[in-house]
Design brief:
By secondary structure, this protein is mostly beta strands. The chain contains no helices and eight strands.
């Protein structure tokens, strides 16, 4: 699936490091949302506290994550929720 400036990605990741919300856009020093140079917006919607992560990713690991894609109007255009990442 191609990337588009009008597509908003909501990510829920099993490997997100987070513990206490510091402000509206960070959680334990980790940014929760950002916008790429091409206009793609990314938002982590369910961060996980670092102390709850029993398995930490390492450089070179292959990671899987859940995602939900919506267009600029908020209409869902893709998701793997209810399936496997």
């Amino acid at each position: 699936m191609g990337r588009s400036g009008s597509v908003l990605i909501f990510l829920v990741s099993i490997f997100v490091f987070a513990a206490a919300e510091e402000d509206n856009n960070t959680f334990q020093g980790q940014k929760l949302s950002w916008k790429d140079d091409d206009g793609l917006e990314i938002k982590i919607i369910r961060p996980i506290a670092a102390e709850k992560c029993k398995l930490k990713s390492q450089a070179g690991d292959v990671l899987e994550q859940y995602y939900k894609l919506t267009d600029a109007d908020g209409k869902e255009v893709g998701s793997n929720f209810g399936g496997t990442p």
